[in-house]
Structures are given as C-alpha cells and as structure tokens.
Amino acid sequence: MLWQAATILREHRGDGHLAALLTAGLDPVESLVSFAGIGAAPVAAFAGRGWSEEEWAAARDRLAARALLDDAGVATERGRALRAEVERRTDELAAEPWRSLGAADSARLSDLLGPFWLEVLGTGLLPRQSTLGIGTV
What we know:
Blueprint: H1 2-23, H2 28-37, H3 53-65, H4 77-101, H5 103-123
Protein name: SalK
Organism: Actinomadura alba
C-alpha cells in the first residue's frame, strides 16, 4: 500500500510537470534539450528517449532562437529562469495531495519512505546521472 501511495504521488507530480512544460512553451524534445542545457545530465544520457540527432539539433536551434540556449547548447540565464519556473510550477501543482494529507501525516509518510529511499540509493543500482533530475538543480 505504501508503494502504491508513493507511485500515485509520483504520477500526479509527473502530470503536473508535463502541464508546466507545456505552459512554458516547451515541446517534448525541447523539454529534454533544455534539461540537458542546465546540466541535468550529459546529452548522451538522453539518447534512449528516441529523438534523432536531427530532431535534437532542431530543438536546440529553436531554443537558441528564443535565447534559452547559447550556441554550445548551454542554458542562458533566461533558459535557466524558464527551467526554474517549470520546476516551481511543478512543485506548486504537486503540493495539493500533501496539503490534503496535512503536515503531520506528510511527515509520517516521509519518515516511512526515508529508510527505503536510503536503502535504494545505497544499492548503487540507480545511475549517478539520469534524465530524471534526481539530485540535480
């Protein structure tokens, strides 16, 4: 039951993240290119997402035309601000279940999940760099 609750919260956050990306005017490949641009993971880590080199380059060009990336594909100040706004909006959209749960029960859920999370991290099975943004920004 605990795993299901965590999964539902993760899925809810993911839905809000997609909404925040769309609201920010980022299409799917631009979302990944801009995420790579802030240094979340090396570009090669995104290869498994299925975008061709041409699609990636076209998205990078679109973002550069909007002054969100520089010529090297690195986020500009404006690009970093946009990504920060996406994350802020994602957090805002993800907060309602936690508010509904209340402070005491939210803390209890965190206490219950914390040891499991530490065990998972301790296994070394999670990649040190991933496209999920865990431990970035």
